[in-house]
Amino acid sequence: MKKACVIGWPIEHSRSPLIHNYWLKKHGIDATYEKQAIEPENAAQFIAALAVSEFVGCNVTIPHKETAFQAVAETDKIAGRLGAVNTVYVRNGKACGTNTDGEGFIASLHHAYPAFGLKNKAAIIIGAGGAAKAIIGALIDAGVARIGIINRTRARILDLQAQFGSQIIEINETAANDALAACDLLVNTTSLGMEGGTEIALDIQHLKRNALVADIIYVPLETALLAKAKQLGHPVLGGLGMLLHQAVRGFELWFGVKPEVTEELHDLVAADVQKASKQ
After folding, report:
1. Residue 61, CB-side half-sphere exposure with 13 Å CA sphere
2. Torsion, CA 272, CA 130, CA 83, CA 169, rounded to 10
3. Helix (H, G, I), strand (E, B) or coil at 76
4. What pTM did the predictor assign?
5. Which end is more exposed in the chain, N or C (fewer Cβ atoms within 10 Å of the end residue's Cβ)?
C-alpha cells in the first residue's frame, strides 16, 4: 500500500489529510495519507530518507520548506528559483522536490474568476516571505507587468528586486494610495488577519475600482481584509482555493491520477475550518 504524508512543526492544523484522503477514496486508490509532526532538527534527515522509506512522497509546510530544498536530491526550475520545496516525490530511487504554491494560487484565481486576465496587469503583494516569492514567480510567468511590494522590512523588498528584477517595485507609505489606485490585483501573503491575530493596517479605500482582492489565509475563511473589500464592491478570493489547488500536482506525482478541485471538496474543508473556529 502506498503512503504519503504532510510534515511540519506543528502539524495539527493541517487540512492536507482531509483533502488527499478525500481524493484517494474518490478514485478508489489503496493508499493512505497522514500527518507527521517532524521537529526542525529532524526534517532534513526525514526528507533525505524518503527515497528508501515506505512513503512515496510528502507535502512540506512551515517551517520546513527551505530545509526540504536543501535535503532533496533534485529540484525543478520552480523550486530552484524559490529556494523552497512544498512537495517531495520519489523518482528513480531519489527524493525530488517541487513547489506548487504559485500554481495553486493562479489555479485558484482562474477557477473562481475565469475571465480575470493577468497579462500586463499591475499587482500589489503584501509581504515578502516564501509565499510571496511563490506567488510573485507565478504572476510574472502569467504576464503581470509590475508587482508592488508592501513590507515592513525594506531589505526583504530589495532581495525580491535582486531575485525577480525590475518588475518588482517598492511601495512605501507615501506612495501607497497612488499604487492602490492603479492596482488590478491585491494579495495578502502575510499571516496578518489570521484568527486571533493582528489585522492588516492597510487602508484600501483608494483601491482601483473592480480590483480583485485575495488573501492566502483560510482561517478564518473570510478575513477582515476580504470583508472590507467585499463591502467596497471588490471581487474577493479567500485562501482555501489555493490550499486545494496546490495539492493537485502532489497527488498526481504520488498516485498517478490528476484529481479535481470540486465544490464538494471545497465545502468539506470549509466546514472543517468553521467547526475548528467554533471550538
Report:
1. 20
2. 150
3. coil
4. 0.95
5. C
pLDDT band with cut points at 50, 70 and 90 for residue 279 = low
State the average pLDDT over residues 171-176: 91
Type of residue at 226: L
Is residue 19 within 8 A of residue 265, CB to CB? The reply is yes
pLDDT at 41: 97
> 3-state DSSP call for residue 35?
strand
C-alpha span between 98 and 78 (Å, rounded): 7
Asked if 99 and 133 count as a contact pair (C-beta separation under 8 A), the reply is no
- Give the pLDDT band of residue 53 (cuts 50, 70, 90): very high
What's the grid cell of residue 63?
Answer: 517551517
Residue-range domains of the chain with CATH = 2-100+247-278 (3.40.50.10860), 102-241 (3.40.50.720)
Residue 16 buriedness (CB in 10 A; 0-12 / 13-18 / 19+): buried
